[in-house]
Amino acid sequence: MADAIKVLIVDDHQVVRRGLRTFLEVQDDIEVVGEAADGAEGVARTEELKPDVVLMDVKMPGMDGIDALRRLRELDHPARVLIVTSFTEQRTVIPALRAGAAGYVYKDVDPDALAGAIRSVHAGHILLQPEVAGVLLSQEESNSGQGRGGSLTEREREVLGLIADGREIARALVLSEKTVKTHVSNILMKLDLADRTQAALFAVRHGLTR
User: Fold this and answer.
1) How many CA atoms lie within 13 A of 139 on its CB side?
2) Which of 29, 27, 30 is nearest to 54 (CA)?
3) pLDDT one-digit tens code per residue, 84-141
């Protein structure tokens, strides 16, 4: 499966890991390359196995999923992390996404939807279940988001739309990576946002997607 999406499962419950592996192993385009029982092991296994997508639980003994996400972000690891958890509280959702998660789904997600979520985040999209997106969008609105989009240049609005669509910005706009990074930095500064996840949600909320 040379072109299969390589997946690492990080969860402290063996039954959950086994269930996820059993389902994913029947997918023609997904390969489970390993498992880990906590965040620290998850970081080590990510470095070792170099998966494309990491399925990460949030609440685990020792290093939890959010700390593991921060560690992977510090290491600038390219793996996309999809949170798979039973916790829906705002105090869990927001830190996970700010720490760099590419998506957030619940453990009772339909198996086919989970496979679709893996494919989606691997393709570069940000994936949130509706109620999770609602939490972030409501917070963004409460932080006086209205009107901030007007301070963007036309090019910055194009870049913001591509961030939300998960598309490769440099190729789509025929720009250098350095120029793209400058545009993204300007967008985050002007909109007072922390990262690309918040930028994508802002774009969705204000109709800036393509």
Assistant:
1) 15
2) 30
3) 988 766 667 778 877 888 888 888 888 888 999 999 889 888 776 655 555 555 555 5
CB atoms < 10 A from the CB of 183, how many? 22
Structure tokens at 83: 């949170």
- The reported pLDDT for the residue numbered 132 is 58
pLDDT of 209 > 80? The answer is no
- Which string of b and e fits 96-134 if b means at least 16 CB within 10 Å? bbbbbbbbbbeeeeeeeebbebbbbbbeebbbbbeebbe
* Tokens representing residue 127 in the block: 């994936």
148 or 93: whose pLDDT is higher?
A: 93
**Which SS3 state, helix, strand or coil, does residue 88 take?**
coil
Residue indicated by tokens 């679709």: 116
Q: For residue 124, give the 3-state DSSP assignment.
A: coil
pLDDT at position 40: 96
Residues 130 and 116: their CA atoms lie apart, in Å, by 15
- Strand arrangement, sheet containing 30-36: 30-36, 5-10, 53-56, 80-85, 103-106, 127-128
pLDDT number for residue 144: 45
Separation CA 103–CA 168 (nearest Å): 18
End-to-end CA distance of the chain: 33
What one-letter code names the amino acid at 21?
A: R
